[in-house]
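ok here's the first one, seq then struct tokens
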Amino acid sequence: MAKDASRLKSPRCPACGSDAGRKAFDCIEPGFEILVCCGCGMGRTIPPVPPEEIGRYYPETYYGKENVRFNVVFERLTRLFRLRRARVIASRAKPGPVLDVGCGRGFILACLRDLGFQPHGIELSDTAAWHARQVLKLAVETCDFNRSPHRKGVYDAVILWHSLEHLPRPVEALARAHALLKDGGLLAVAVPNVESLQAGLFGRHWFHLDVPRHYFHFGAESLASVLVRQGFAIVQEDHFCLEQNPYGWIQSLYNSLGFDENFLYSLLKNRSARAMRMRRHPIQLALTALTLPVVAALGVLMTLVEAVLRRGGTIEVYAVKRRT
């Protein structure tokens, strides 16, 4: 990373207000770079794609036909991880109204509904919300969360699970979540950790960077600081995530070794969600098959190491709205 400090090419940092920062690197996606705030360490994608144009970075292949993104095995694992997440939320929140911002296919909300919650969701587009609406019969709106019509102080839980980084105004989103929650209500947030071992080692090849869909790149410290300033008290911060963190190591390593960017990720997807044709890459297919057992074992090992060091590739934070 570049060591010299310079003025950021964008307005003041929304997290801490500083306008001093440093360029971290140019991104794999042409025309974008990551700038890191010198005040709080939060990263930003520069230039940010205007909200009215970001939809072109979410093509139908991003979601897959009928929102089925992965192959049969990984689809099953995805549902198991969502069930586990719902149970954690249910253990910390009263079984009342819950709002999932960026609810995707609605698996978490469906599980919470079975656990006695009243589920509500928000998504970026009708395409993203299709499965939740049509298959799971959930109430999902497509709107700007910061301007959503929900009443204040009615929710027992608000979920921002790997969606906060997709929002162009994340600090406003946290303030909005605070307003919608009841006193003592639960906020569940998960984000990629730009302060992680993965991010530091792989830089522009880090799998969880996902530019330009990720507008902001939080670290554990910057996220905690913003949450406290917005009126939340953090009750739990986890750096171990079996769903996200081992794969972050695996895919980032392949990316850094010169494989087509996120080649394995595309291979694991349902055919309708693949960004490339696998048959055109026989050498990469063979090398992936030969090396994956070793690389996967290394990924699991490094996930344990980063968790012990409190520098996980992604972080999961549970916070409660302080009573007013």
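and now the second one, same deal
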Amino acid sequence: MQAPDPSAADTPARLPTLGDRFADWGAPEALVDAWRTVEAYPIVAAAIIVLLAFVAGKAVQAVVARGVSRLTEKTRTSFDDKVVELLHRPLFLTVFFLGLTLALGVLELPPGLRRRLVQVLMTLLLIVWLTAVWPILRMVLDALGRHHERFPLVEERTIPLFDITGKIVLLGTAGYVLLAIWGVDPTPWLAAGGVAGLAVGFAAKDTLANLFGGIFIVADAPYKVGDFIILDSGERGVVTKVGMRSTRLLTRDDIEITLPNAQIANAKIINESGGPWEKERIRIKVGVAYGSDVDRVCEVLKRIAAEHEHIVRQPEPRVRLRAFGASSLDFELLCWIDEPVLRGRLSHELNMAVYKAFAREGIEIPYAKHDVYVKEMPAG
């Protein structure tokens, strides 16, 4: 029996070439022989692979675009067309980078250098896909928000929450894949991230409070963009933006106020645009002298509201005698307006109209009078 050659154990096994793989895949013998001849010239073989990868990438890009375009022609929206347009480049680069990986395998490069170059290519491909999926996420949320009757969970007020959650998931997945590409064990990184998260949480507790306040506002929806709200701290205006950190109000003086969400989450909020409709009732208080014709007063007040173009017809304006005052009968005109933001101007216009109408009708509006009686003139 022949003893084994100890030097053979130190000889590394020959790695299968691309020609060997062609033979294993059952390719024609002539093609296998031709390719093995080309492999004798690594640069030429690599150039051929790169060229074929470029052609294959363009072919895949064209086939997918044509096939998907036939499907998107049947839809009425441009959403799917934009998605296909954003995927053109990643599809081509995926095929092309795979070809570059095969080309690196043909070249006579040190194994360490070859592995690093492949890792760089896979990292670039990951970045390409991440930059393509990033805007698609927002487009999908906007499309679902426009059809919130079919997807009630996704609407204008919840889109920011889903948007930031989706981006965090994308970044987390991309980070995990990046570590896997470079052969890094993610366990120590996750442990370090937990410790760093605690440190950041203590250092940025106010920012996190605003962030969670924004999440609660989006989830609970005490108001939305366009609502007219009043806070217990005195701020009053139209909501122009609901962000994850703050909410912006535009006051009647055209001054924009930015309020931290943590403050709003713990505040009492009066939403004058809430309820079954946006209409709001305003109250015009007026006093008339005792002895006035109360029926005539009610008729005049109702006519004033009915003749104003910005007073809502339904519900109808109402007049109520509220109290017997010290020197007047206290009436109240109740009427509805379309938007809360009109309350100040319409209250002014109705007060002006009441004063003029009472003057024409001879209805007295009493006011405080003081009579001074001098019992005796001082001696001169």
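notes on #2: The chain has three domains: 18-197, 220-271, 280-361. The chain is about 55% helix and 15% strand.
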